[in-house]
């Protein structure tokens, strides 16, 4: 980063990724962070977003704001997921361009890739097959965000980049019993089993599916790294029509191994029971992170250390978490 102060807008600063970005950017003396709560700025309101950009003289944007949820939420509210995400990203990217913001980083999702993409999933798998039906509206919106960035780069000469994270976990995650993802769901379940001295914990499925996980602090570090890469280096790994880069740990594990590691971290001594009447989902989901590795970035946390860090945060914040 240059010595002059950069005015950096983090859209979605209260979310898991946005808050991690804020923590890491705050340590830089030459960065002035700009944020707005949902009550202060409705990102789906085009006029409000335009006025916000015109007022704040922004230099860089991290577009981490999104409507997110699990399978149940995606299935129940598909219109909300596609509409709100399309509006948020379109309004921000258009306002950035109108207000001469040259650098923007869009955060996507691994669900952009086809349901039956080859493993590990590489960037060129995008639009090469049919999406997973349960979250297709959300995935289409995220694909549109990538294509918005590419289109503004081609037409206006902007430097708008996109990163696609694998499954994330860490501080500020959602530990809701119904709407959370696998790591926070299991962490809460094992924690409560330990507190109540339960003899067993039941886990959906066979435990055989393989999944990849990345600590959110690693995702934030990768995002800042990609944002500030020399443009020529970035363009060596991308093309005008395929400009996104995957960010993952490069390692997957079975759900059984994940559950055993969480139990170990928490100190739960009971039995793990796998309910094979419940669905497993895809047998494997792993992203290729060779491009970002070739650019010089690698993660800091392995899974056990990352889970321990997350459980420390969980214990420190258990009374205020989204737990019900």
From TrEMBL:
This is GDP-L-fucose synthase. The active site is at 138 (proton donor/acceptor). Pathway: Nucleotide-sugar biosynthesis; GDP-L-fucose biosynthesis via de novo pathway; GDP-L-fucose from GDP-alpha-D-mannose: step 2/2. It is an enzyme of class 1 (oxidoreductase). PANTHER family: GDP-L-FUCOSE SYNTHASE. It comes from the Bacteria. One of its GO terms (biological process) is 'de novo' GDP-L-fucose biosynthetic process. Belongs to the NAD(P)-dependent epimerase/dehydratase family. Fucose synthase subfamily. InterPro entries: Epimerase_deHydtase, GDP_fucose/colitose_synth, NAD(P)-bd_dom_sf. It catalyses: GDP-beta-L-fucose + NADP(+) = GDP-4-dehydro-alpha-D-rhamnose + NADPH + H(+). Keywords: Isomerase, Multifunctional enzyme, NADP, Oxidoreductase. NADP(+) binds at residues 12-18, 107-110, 142, 165-168, 181. The record marks 109, 111 as: Important for catalytic activity. Catalyzes the two-step NADP-dependent conversion of GDP-4-dehydro-6-deoxy-D-mannose to GDP-fucose, involving an epimerase and a reductase reaction. Residues 8-232 form the NAD-dependent epimerase/dehydratase domain. Its EC number is 1.1.1.271. Substrate binds at residues 189, 204, 211, 280. Coiled coil: none annotated. It comes from Pseudohongiella nitratireducens. CDD domains: GDP_FS_SDR_e (cd05239). The keyword Methyltransferase does not apply. GO terms for molecular function: GDP-L-fucose synthase activity; isomerase activity; NADP+ binding. The keyword Metal-binding does not apply.
